[in-house]
Write a structure and sequence with these properties.
By secondary structure, this protein is of the alpha+beta class. The protein contains 6 helices and 5 strands.
């Protein structure tokens, strides 16, 4: 099936909207991956609430113009796919690095995370960071800790009083017998 100009324009528009609607994108070289591996990669990326798209280099370079991802245009050489995250770039980086460890044919080329260009090696560093859910859990723990301590201090006085009264009752019962 021949690719028409209209379909290229539609694809360009889709890419532009994808780049404008995200803060983070990671470029990967997928050369050497088999179809089942690519399918599994797409499934894992989708599970991380991100998207994976194989792009035509010339269209991608055009779509990057005027976006924070313009620094990536030099990396659109050869077989290139773009994985972009909506909210959590750490989750996407974790998926791609773990998949790349299991399947060495996948290679990370470069990335832009929240407007900052990073190299392929830094993507693995990004993957070692805690994700948003973990950070939210830590923050919630830190916010709850003072309240839990106050409650335990306030409960200590009545609890100690009850244990003193119980011990006094035991002593009276022993001395009366």
């Amino acid at each position: 099936m021949a690719v028409t100009r209209a379909s290229k324009v539609d694809e360009l528009r889709d890419l532009e909207s994808a780049f404008k609607g995200t803060e983070s994108a990671i470029l990967v070289d997928y050369k050497g991956l088999k179809v089942p591996e690519v399918t599994e990669l797409r499934r894992q990326v989708r599970r991380a609430k991100a998207s994976y798209k194989v792009v035509k280099n010339t269209l991608a370079k055009r779509a990057l113009k005027g976006t924070p991802f313009e620094t990536l245009s030099e990396h659109f050489v050869g077989t290139t796919a773009v994985a972009y995250a909506g909210e959590d770039p750490v989750a996407l980086a974790k998926v791609l690095t773990t998949f790349a460890k299991a399947t060495p044919a996948l290679k990370v080329k470069a990335a832009v995370v929240q407007g900052r260009a990073i190299k392929a090696a830094e993507v693995t560093d990004l993957a070692s960071l805690p994700g948003k859910p973990e950070l939210y859990a830590k923050l919630l723990f830190l916010l709850q800790a003072p309240m839990v301590q106050i409650v335990s201090v306030l409960n200590a006085a009545p609890r100690d009083l009850m244990s003193v009264l119980v011990q006094a009752e035991k002593q009276r019962a022993e001395s009366a017998s």
